[in-house]
Amino acid sequence: MAFTFNFDIPLQTEETNDKENKDDNAKDVDLKCSDASATVPTKMKNAIEHEPLLDPLSHIENWVPETVTIGALPPLLCLNESVFEKTAPEREDSEEILAKTLNQKSDLITGVYEGGLKIWECTYDLLQYIDDEGETFTGKRVLDLGCGAGLLGILALKRGAIKVDFQDYNSTVIEQLTVPNVFLNCEDDDDDDETEEQNSSPPSKRKALNASQKLLDRCGFFSGDWNSFLTLVRNKTLSKYDIIFTSETIYNTDYYSSLHNVFCGLLAEDGIVYLATKSHYFGVGGGLHLFEKFVEENKVFQTKYLKDVEQGLKRHVVSLTFKK
Ligand SMILES: C[S@@+](CC[C@H](N)C(=O)[O-])C[C@H]1O[C@@H](n2cnc3c(N)ncnc32)[C@H](O)[C@@H]1O
């Protein structure tokens, strides 16, 4: 049985952090987009930061890598998604999203599972756009928002970004897919420097640990809903992102205000959001037209169409920058 493109909206969520969430969100009053008030379902998962193990791949059984090759981009490795369904029963999944998506044969269960276990096609459109433009990310701070497998952030890491944060709604996605993918791709992108503590290990192990630590210093991993993610990041640092990638994240109109608030609160003044999306998400209701309308009404960002894909259901790559 393969993962399907079904949507299941809405369902009860299992976490009840409403009060904490609301209190935290109330602190976010200095956003430029104050009228973008949150209308998200009340029972969303609170944001947390994940501290990955230095060798995450060694803790995941039965993983199978596959390679995504687009134009002249470096090949990007990722764990094959079909392995998740085959090995669902033996995987660590405190959120139980693997079982739930399998049982309900659904790619989206609002507030429970938001689709991060598979790579959605607009990610490939955005990778293609980056290849066409020859864009590199040297010295940039990047956020892969709603990252799923994390390929956009991984590309930025491989192309010189100084910092890449990965965010997905589900902790299972971050732990079982995003983090392993980052290590799978970037472990060897480093030199031989060693710390004293690691000098007692065998050289190959030492090199790997060293590379992992350096990689982790450049990455952050977060799960949870966008409202509490915004609060968490703003409490942690004043730095903002030069680039925010976000692919296939505007399918649910209830999330528009929290998504817009993340852009407002975390994008640097001269930064750019790259949004890759379908024109319309049938069965869910969201789409580019509605999101553009929301953005226009809030008068904070200007949008620009960068790429249109006309095959099948129309897809687009769009940028958002602050209005001058
Ligand atoms: C359809 S998936 C797309 C995954 C990936 N960007 C891709 O293109 O393959 C939507 C992503 O947005 C994130 N997301 C959606 N709604 C969210 C919300 N309200 N809060 C936090 N994350 C959310 C989910 O974690 C999920 O990974």
Task: Describe this entry's structure for a reader.
With 324 residues, this protein is an alpha/beta fold. The protein has a domain at 112-322: 3-Layer(aba) Sandwich (Rossmann fold). Helices cover 33% and strands 21% of the residues. The protein is built from 10 helices and 12 strands. The protein has helices spanning 18-26, 82-86, 97-104, 121-133, 151-158, 171-186, 203-217, 226-236, 256-266, 288-298; strands at residues 7-8, 48-50, 65-68, 76-79, 108-109, 141-145, 163-168, 219-223, 241-247, 267-278, 301-309, 315-322. The chain has an 8-stranded mixed β-sheet with strand order 2-8-7-6-9-10-12-11, sandwiched between helices. The radius of gyration is 19 Å and the shape is globular. S-adenosylmethionine binds at residues 40, 114-116, 119-120, 122-123, 146-148, 168-170, 225-226, 247-249, 255, 258. S-adenosylmethionine binds next to helix 4.
Give a quick rundown of the structure.
By secondary structure, the protein is of the alpha/beta class.
Secondary structure layout plus pairing:
Blueprint: E1 7-8, H1 18-26, E2 48-50, E3 65-68, E4 76-79, H2 82-86, H3 97-104, E5 108-109, H4 121-133, E6 141-145, H5 151-158, E7 163-168, H6 171-186, H7 203-217, E8 219-223, H8 226-236, E9 241-247, H9 256-266, E10 267-278, H10 288-298, E11 301-309, E12 315-322
Helix pairs in contact: 5-6, 8-9
The structure holds S-adenosylmethionine.
S-adenosylmethionine binds next to helix 4.
EC number: 2.1.1.85
GO cellular component, one term: cytoplasm
Enzyme class: transferase
